[in-house]
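Z., the sequence and structure:
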Amino acid sequence: MTTTTFGYDPAQDRIWMRVHDQDVTLWLTRRMVRSILGPILKVFEESTPGQQGGAAPRARASIEHQLSLHEAAPGQRPAQIRAGREQPGQESDPQRRLCTRITTQAAPQGVTLNFETGAGPLVLRLSRKGTHLWYRGLALVLPQTHWNLPEPLPEWLQEPMTPAAVRDLLDRPLPPDLDKPASGR
C-alpha cells in the first residue's frame, strides 16, 4: 500500500507530496493542482464502476468515496487519514522535484498517476480506494493555500470524515442530569 503525506509551504506557495515507500517528495504548483482537481478528477469520476445502474458519474464516485473512507474489506485494515505537522524533509529540493507534467490512466480497478519532474518521473499506482484516500489528503491541505481555485471541489470530496451515524451521536444534546452524583444504595 502506498502512503502519501501532503503539506503546504507558504514560502514556496506550493503543495508538497511525500511518497513514503519511494522516499520521494514532489512539489505541486497551483496550476498542477488545478489539473488534478479538474480534468483528472473528472476522468476518475467517469471511470467509477456501476454505469449500468444509470447513476451519474459524480453520484457513483460519491458512493465509492464513502465506502473507501468507512468500509474495510475482510482481512484489511480500515482507511487511515491523519493530520500532523510533518515537514517535506531535507532531501526535497523544490526545483529538482517540481512537477512539470501529470498524465493519468484511470480504470475500474485503479489509477496510475505519472508525475514528471526535473529529477525524473514518479509513478503512483493506486487502487480505487487508494485514489479516494489520496484525493482526500490533497483536499485536506487545500484550505491552507488560499488559492481560491476556480472550480469548487465536488461535494463528495468535501463531506465530513466522520460517518453520519457517529456525527448524529456527537450532535445529540447531553442529558441534563449528567452532572448529578450517582445515588448510593
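The mean pLDDT is 84. The beta strands are 4-9, 14-19, 24-28, 101-106, 110-117, 120-127.

Let me know what you think.
H.
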